[in-house]
Amino acid sequence: MLSQVSVTKRKPEVPADPFLPMKGRLGTLFDSEIDYSPFENIGYVAKQFRTPTAILANDPYDEHVHILERGYAYTFSLLETGRRHISEVFGAGSICNWTSLDAPAARSNINFMAGARVVCIKLKDLRELLKEQPVLAKALTRHELARTMRATQRVRAIVTRSGEDRLIHLLLDLRSEQSASGGEAIRFAVPLKQDELADMIGQTHVHVNRIIRTLEKNGRLRRETGQWELTKLDDEVQRLEYMEYFSTAPFSRREKDRYPHPVDQ
After folding, report:
1. Is the Cβ–Cβ distance between 72 and 113 less than 8 Å?
2. Using alpha carbons only, what angle is made at residue 190 by residues 139 and 161, rounded to the nearest 5 degrees?
3. Cystine design at 215: which of 16, 136, 168, 221 (Cβ 3.0–4.6 Å)?
4. Model's pTM, two decimal places?
Protein backbone atom coordinates (compact mmCIF):
# COMPACT_ATOMS: atom_id res chain seq x y z
CA MET A 1 0.00 0.00 0.00
CA LEU A 2 2.55 2.56 1.08
CA SER A 3 4.60 2.07 -2.08
CA GLN A 4 1.71 3.64 -3.96
CA VAL A 5 1.83 6.85 -1.96
CA SER A 6 4.06 9.84 -2.60
CA VAL A 7 4.59 11.67 0.70
CA THR A 8 5.75 15.27 0.84
CA LYS A 9 6.16 17.59 3.80
CA ARG A 10 5.68 21.31 3.17
CA LYS A 11 7.25 21.09 -0.29
CA PRO A 12 6.82 23.86 -2.90
CA GLU A 13 4.44 21.72 -4.96
CA VAL A 14 1.94 21.77 -2.10
CA PRO A 15 -0.27 24.89 -2.43
CA ALA A 16 0.31 27.70 0.06
CA ASP A 17 -3.05 26.97 1.67
CA PRO A 18 -3.94 23.26 1.40
CA PHE A 19 -6.88 23.85 3.74
CA LEU A 20 -8.64 26.21 1.31
CA PRO A 21 -11.13 23.57 0.04
CA MET A 22 -12.15 22.78 3.62
CA LYS A 23 -12.67 26.47 4.36
CA GLY A 24 -14.86 26.74 1.28
CA ARG A 25 -17.07 23.88 2.45
CA LEU A 26 -17.51 25.39 5.90
CA GLY A 27 -18.36 28.75 4.37
CA THR A 28 -21.45 27.26 2.70
CA LEU A 29 -22.90 26.25 6.07
CA PHE A 30 -21.60 28.67 8.65
CA ASP A 31 -22.14 32.39 8.29
CA SER A 32 -20.20 33.56 11.37
CA GLU A 33 -16.62 34.63 10.97
CA ILE A 34 -14.26 31.73 11.57
CA ASP A 35 -10.65 32.18 12.58
CA TYR A 36 -8.57 29.83 10.42
CA SER A 37 -5.22 31.29 11.41
CA PRO A 38 -4.33 28.37 13.76
CA PHE A 39 -4.02 26.16 10.67
CA GLU A 40 -1.06 28.27 9.58
CA ASN A 41 1.03 26.78 12.38
CA ILE A 42 -0.32 23.25 12.65
CA GLY A 43 1.95 20.48 11.42
CA TYR A 44 0.79 18.31 8.56
CA VAL A 45 1.95 15.82 5.95
CA ALA A 46 0.67 15.94 2.35
CA LYS A 47 0.10 12.65 0.53
CA GLN A 48 -0.47 12.15 -3.19
CA PHE A 49 -2.16 8.92 -4.30
CA ARG A 50 -1.12 7.87 -7.81
CA THR A 51 -3.33 4.77 -7.79
CA PRO A 52 -6.42 3.77 -5.77
CA THR A 53 -5.15 3.11 -2.26
CA ALA A 54 -6.91 1.79 0.82
CA ILE A 55 -6.07 2.78 4.38
CA LEU A 56 -7.63 0.28 6.76
CA ALA A 57 -9.10 1.18 10.12
CA ASN A 58 -6.20 -0.45 11.99
CA ASP A 59 -3.52 1.17 9.83
CA PRO A 60 -1.04 3.38 11.73
CA TYR A 61 -1.86 6.23 9.35
CA ASP A 62 -5.35 6.27 10.85
CA GLU A 63 -3.86 8.10 13.83
CA HIS A 64 -4.16 11.14 11.60
CA VAL A 65 -7.14 13.15 10.37
CA HIS A 66 -7.29 12.94 6.58
CA ILE A 67 -8.52 16.13 4.87
CA LEU A 68 -8.98 15.87 1.11
CA GLU A 69 -7.28 18.72 -0.71
CA ARG A 70 -8.11 17.36 -4.14
CA GLY A 71 -9.90 14.37 -5.65
CA TYR A 72 -12.22 11.82 -4.08
CA ALA A 73 -12.30 9.04 -1.51
CA TYR A 74 -14.88 6.71 0.01
CA THR A 75 -15.35 4.72 3.21
CA PHE A 76 -16.15 1.04 2.94
CA SER A 77 -16.60 -2.18 4.88
CA LEU A 78 -16.45 -5.82 3.86
CA LEU A 79 -19.53 -7.87 4.68
CA GLU A 80 -19.40 -11.48 5.87
CA THR A 81 -20.48 -12.58 2.40
CA GLY A 82 -17.33 -10.99 0.99
CA ARG A 83 -19.27 -8.19 -0.67
CA ARG A 84 -18.06 -4.62 -0.24
CA HIS A 85 -20.36 -1.95 1.15
CA ILE A 86 -19.49 1.68 0.34
CA SER A 87 -21.01 3.98 2.92
CA GLU A 88 -19.93 7.52 1.95
CA VAL A 89 -18.13 9.44 -0.80
CA PHE A 90 -15.93 12.46 -0.04
CA GLY A 91 -14.92 15.38 -2.26
CA ALA A 92 -12.31 18.11 -1.84
CA GLY A 93 -12.29 19.76 1.56
CA SER A 94 -13.83 16.79 3.36
CA ILE A 95 -12.53 15.18 6.52
CA CYS A 96 -12.60 11.54 5.46
CA ASN A 97 -12.34 10.05 8.95
CA TRP A 98 -14.17 12.44 11.24
CA THR A 99 -15.18 9.47 13.43
CA SER A 100 -11.52 8.95 14.34
CA LEU A 101 -11.64 12.39 15.94
CA ASP A 102 -15.16 12.26 17.36
CA ALA A 103 -15.55 8.53 18.12
CA PRO A 104 -12.20 6.68 17.90
CA ALA A 105 -13.85 3.26 18.31
CA ALA A 106 -15.92 3.77 15.14
CA ARG A 107 -13.17 3.98 12.54
CA SER A 108 -13.74 3.12 8.90
CA ASN A 109 -11.69 1.82 6.01
CA ILE A 110 -10.94 4.55 3.47
CA ASN A 111 -10.18 4.12 -0.21
CA PHE A 112 -8.46 7.10 -1.84
CA MET A 113 -8.98 7.31 -5.58
CA ALA A 114 -6.20 7.86 -8.08
CA GLY A 115 -5.14 11.49 -8.16
CA ALA A 116 -6.39 12.28 -4.66
CA ARG A 117 -4.22 14.53 -2.52
CA VAL A 118 -4.64 14.52 1.24
CA VAL A 119 -3.47 16.68 4.13
CA CYS A 120 -2.85 14.59 7.25
CA ILE A 121 -2.94 16.13 10.74
CA LYS A 122 -2.26 14.21 13.93
CA LEU A 123 -5.45 13.54 15.87
CA LYS A 124 -4.10 15.02 19.08
CA ASP A 125 -3.01 18.22 17.33
CA LEU A 126 -6.44 18.82 15.79
CA ARG A 127 -8.20 18.04 19.07
CA GLU A 128 -6.10 20.67 20.83
CA LEU A 129 -6.76 23.21 18.06
CA LEU A 130 -10.52 22.71 18.26
CA LYS A 131 -10.51 23.12 22.05
CA GLU A 132 -8.98 26.55 21.54
CA GLN A 133 -11.30 27.44 18.63
CA PRO A 134 -14.93 26.68 19.64
CA VAL A 135 -16.40 28.50 16.62
CA LEU A 136 -14.33 26.37 14.25
CA ALA A 137 -15.26 23.25 16.21
CA LYS A 138 -18.94 24.16 15.87
CA ALA A 139 -18.59 24.71 12.13
CA LEU A 140 -16.92 21.32 11.61
CA THR A 141 -19.53 19.60 13.77
CA ARG A 142 -22.31 21.24 11.77
CA HIS A 143 -20.72 20.11 8.52
CA GLU A 144 -20.51 16.52 9.74
CA LEU A 145 -24.10 16.68 10.97
CA ALA A 146 -25.16 17.72 7.46
CA ARG A 147 -23.24 14.73 6.04
CA THR A 148 -24.90 12.38 8.53
CA MET A 149 -28.37 13.67 7.66
CA ARG A 150 -27.65 13.28 3.96
CA ALA A 151 -26.48 9.69 4.51
CA THR A 152 -29.62 8.94 6.54
CA GLN A 153 -31.74 10.31 3.71
CA ARG A 154 -29.90 8.07 1.23
CA VAL A 155 -30.37 4.97 3.41
CA ARG A 156 -34.10 5.67 3.55
CA ALA A 157 -34.18 5.83 -0.25
CA ILE A 158 -32.26 2.55 -0.52
CA VAL A 159 -34.73 0.85 1.81
CA THR A 160 -37.94 2.21 0.29
CA ARG A 161 -37.23 3.02 -3.36
CA SER A 162 -36.73 1.14 -6.60
CA GLY A 163 -33.28 0.50 -8.04
CA GLU A 164 -33.73 3.38 -10.49
CA ASP A 165 -34.65 5.82 -7.73
CA ARG A 166 -31.76 4.61 -5.58
CA LEU A 167 -29.31 5.45 -8.34
CA ILE A 168 -30.84 8.87 -9.01
CA HIS A 169 -30.73 9.66 -5.31
CA LEU A 170 -27.05 8.69 -5.17
CA LEU A 171 -26.33 10.88 -8.20
CA LEU A 172 -28.01 13.79 -6.40
CA ASP A 173 -25.68 13.13 -3.45
CA LEU A 174 -22.62 13.13 -5.72
CA ARG A 175 -23.80 16.39 -7.27
CA SER A 176 -24.26 17.79 -3.77
CA GLU A 177 -20.74 16.72 -2.78
CA GLN A 178 -19.23 18.43 -5.82
CA SER A 179 -21.24 21.61 -5.21
CA ALA A 180 -20.13 21.70 -1.57
CA SER A 181 -16.55 21.55 -2.81
CA GLY A 182 -17.12 24.58 -5.04
CA GLY A 183 -17.77 22.66 -8.24
CA GLU A 184 -20.36 23.22 -10.95
CA ALA A 185 -23.96 22.71 -9.84
CA ILE A 186 -25.40 21.41 -13.14
CA ARG A 187 -22.88 18.89 -14.45
CA PHE A 188 -20.99 16.78 -11.97
CA ALA A 189 -18.31 14.13 -11.85
CA VAL A 190 -19.13 10.56 -10.87
CA PRO A 191 -15.84 9.23 -9.48
CA LEU A 192 -17.29 5.79 -8.75
CA LYS A 193 -17.11 2.94 -11.24
CA GLN A 194 -20.32 1.08 -12.00
CA ASP A 195 -19.47 -1.78 -9.63
CA GLU A 196 -18.83 0.81 -6.89
CA LEU A 197 -22.15 2.51 -7.63
CA ALA A 198 -23.75 -0.92 -7.32
CA ASP A 199 -22.05 -1.60 -3.98
CA MET A 200 -23.30 1.71 -2.63
CA ILE A 201 -26.98 1.22 -3.48
CA GLY A 202 -27.23 -2.54 -2.98
CA GLN A 203 -27.63 -3.49 -6.65
CA THR A 204 -25.64 -5.62 -9.07
CA HIS A 205 -23.23 -4.19 -11.62
CA VAL A 206 -25.46 -5.52 -14.42
CA HIS A 207 -28.55 -3.87 -12.93
CA VAL A 208 -26.82 -0.50 -12.54
CA ASN A 209 -25.61 -0.64 -16.14
CA ARG A 210 -29.16 -1.36 -17.28
CA ILE A 211 -30.58 1.53 -15.21
CA ILE A 212 -28.04 3.99 -16.64
CA ARG A 213 -28.88 2.99 -20.21
CA THR A 214 -32.62 3.30 -19.49
CA LEU A 215 -32.24 6.76 -17.96
CA GLU A 216 -30.21 7.90 -20.98
CA LYS A 217 -32.73 6.45 -23.40
CA ASN A 218 -35.57 8.26 -21.62
CA GLY A 219 -33.68 11.56 -21.69
CA ARG A 220 -33.34 11.85 -17.90
CA LEU A 221 -29.56 11.41 -17.80
CA ARG A 222 -26.82 12.78 -20.03
CA ARG A 223 -23.14 11.79 -19.93
CA GLU A 224 -20.48 13.73 -21.82
CA THR A 225 -16.68 13.80 -21.40
CA GLY A 226 -16.73 12.42 -17.88
CA GLN A 227 -19.52 14.73 -16.71
CA TRP A 228 -23.04 13.60 -15.79
CA GLU A 229 -26.21 15.65 -15.82
CA LEU A 230 -29.72 14.95 -14.56
CA THR A 231 -31.67 16.72 -17.28
CA LYS A 232 -34.87 17.02 -15.21
CA LEU A 233 -33.16 17.97 -11.98
CA ASP A 234 -36.02 19.84 -10.31
CA ASP A 235 -38.50 17.10 -11.18
CA GLU A 236 -36.22 14.42 -9.70
CA VAL A 237 -35.68 16.47 -6.53
CA GLN A 238 -39.42 17.04 -6.06
CA ARG A 239 -40.36 13.44 -6.80
CA LEU A 240 -37.79 11.96 -4.41
CA GLU A 241 -38.40 14.71 -1.83
CA TYR A 242 -34.64 15.21 -1.84
CA MET A 243 -33.26 17.60 0.76
CA GLU A 244 -29.98 19.46 0.18
CA TYR A 245 -28.00 19.66 3.42
CA PHE A 246 -24.76 21.27 2.24
CA SER A 247 -26.10 24.69 1.34
CA THR A 248 -27.71 27.64 3.07
CA ALA A 249 -29.21 28.79 -0.24
CA PRO A 250 -32.76 27.84 -1.33
CA PHE A 251 -32.86 24.55 -3.19
CA SER A 252 -36.01 23.46 -5.02
CA ARG A 253 -38.43 22.27 -2.34
CA ARG A 254 -36.79 24.56 0.26
CA GLU A 255 -37.61 27.72 -1.66
CA LYS A 256 -40.66 28.35 0.49
CA ASP A 257 -40.46 29.50 4.11
CA ARG A 258 -42.03 26.25 5.27
CA TYR A 259 -38.80 24.45 4.34
CA PRO A 260 -36.11 25.92 6.62
CA HIS A 261 -32.62 24.54 6.47
CA PRO A 262 -32.76 21.16 8.34
CA VAL A 263 -29.48 21.73 10.18
CA ASP A 264 -31.01 24.88 11.75
CA GLN A 265 -34.04 23.03 13.07
Report:
1. yes
2. 85
3. 221
4. 0.85
